[in-house]
Amino acid sequence: MEILVASAIGVLTAGGIYLMLRQRTFPVIVGLSLLSYAVNIFLFAAGRLAPNLPPIIRAGAPGYTDPLPQALVLTAIVISFGMTAVILLMALGSWLSAGDDFVDGGGNESADDAEGEPS
């Protein structure tokens, strides 16, 4: 189970970083969401995976699950949702003002046009 969770964290992190390096805003937003999912799974797995155990200590229970990582993940989900909404609004404002959705604001210019050389 731990290998599956670790590989899922790795795949989500790699996909998130790859998408965050794109030039358009939508893949950057999706990459940021994937990266936040990877962090949420990492935080949840940091509390040790213990299935079928209660989150509180009670008499007769064989053990308990640590509730702190669950609270941290819930907080991280709320923060990442708000951050995604803010970045989505910033991307929409950039698209409405510039007419394109490039992250650097350069548009469709090639490397030769950016240096001022005639093409």
Short description:
The chain contains 4 helices and no strands.
Can you walk me through this structure?
The chain has helices at 2-20, 25-46, 67-98, 111-115. It has 119 residues and is mainly alpha-helical. α1 (2-20) packs antiparallel against α2 and α2 runs antiparallel to α3. The longest helix has 32 residues, at 67-98. The model has no long low-confidence stretch (mean pLDDT 83).
SSE topology sketch:
Layout: H1 2-20, H2 25-46, H3 67-98, H4 111-115
> Structural class of the helix and strand makeup?
mainly alpha
- What gyration radius follows from the Cα positions, in whole Å? 21 Å
- Count of β-strands: 0
Please state the average pLDDT score. 83
Tell me which oligomeric state these chains represent. Answer: single chain
- How much helical structure, as a percent, in the residues? 55-70%
Please indicate the percent range of residues in DSSP E strands (runs of 2 or more): under 5%
Features:
elongated, 4 helices, mainly alpha, 119 residues
